[in-house]
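Do me a favour: review this protein, sequence plus structure tokens, and tell me how the chain folds. Record follows.
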Amino acid sequence: MDTAIPATTPNRANIFSWHFMPWPYLDESFEENYESGWVTVPNSLFDTDKARGLYQEYLDELSYADELEFDGVVLNEHHQNIYGLMPAPNLLAAALTQTTKNGKIVVLGNLIPLHFRPLRVAEEYAMLDCMSDGRIVAGFAPGGGHEPYSYSYSMPLARERFWEGVDLIVQAWTQPGPTTFDGKHYTMRYVNPWPQPLQKPHPPIWIPGSNSPETMYEVANREFCYFLSTRGKLAGAKRSAVRFSEIVEEVGKKFHPHKMGLLFSVYVAETDEIARKECEEAVFYFTRYCLKGHQRNAGRRLTMAPGGLSPQSWQMYLENSVVGAKMLGDAENWNDIDEMGSIFVGSPDTVYEKLWEFVTEANIGNLLIQFHIGNLSYDLTQKSQRIFAEQVMPRLRADSEKLFGERFPITIADNVPA
């Protein structure tokens, strides 16, 4: 399949504004009275009066990122939790098609195992691509550990259904219909969706993974973008990026940093001291409440569902684990935050230097940045995005363009996600 990028595609790091849309109205009693912010957290904590206008506020934060000329905005899908109030991200993407004009709208991504017929996902993404004038990035995911608990499904079976569903969607977008699809999990006499996406041969496809070699091989063979769905230090990201680039070359494709993305949380202000003071409450709201039960202090952790990892991936996880090592959800102070290396708080120079390490050392070409952290206010979220756009983003773009031009020169025939 010809997926050559246009010659005009910037050969530099792409920078996106990511939003989880968390529930921001918990108080200190949550820490003592509830074991988790995921799956079992009582929905009686959802205050409908406080919820009025919340989605509009969050959408405004993303629309502002588009005004600031980020390369795009990112939505996410999670269920039954306080971490992210986005069980149906395509609804929010539809709203953003009308309030943004330039950047990509990345849905990362629709959970295919939750859909009885993946063709519905193909249709919705095609609608969004038409509504946005060809700005959709189509993310697909099998779901993390918490989704199988939320929806009571088997992870090993879900992975089979996932890749079969992705293949069905790609067929729906690329083969003139009507065609048929006869798989193990999905059988369709008519695959003939109207409308079709504007982007050809189809919208860019991103797949999240957590260092599973099986996922890396599937993504590399299909020439999709691999989003590293873990938070961690530079050394871990570098190992993952190197391994994925090796796999891409191994299957006969060409690696480019645009084929890999990573999530960061950022708060930037005039100085390091001001930045920490302004976002301290929000950062620890995020680590103590939003991640409770996902990464920390729950009676049971929901990060890994039974069968979520193959024996090979489980062995790699154990080999790379450090006994007693803290996860982000265990952070208790700024030293812990700095040590874990995925939340960057500081002046424009400080934030630039931390992000630049991942670009130059790990060849990360898609920087997906969470600006709204925990219960951060609307005004501070906008302030951080504005300072980043004015003082950090231009440097990252200029320096990465020079770096990629030297390391990864692009020709019009290269198969690199736009």
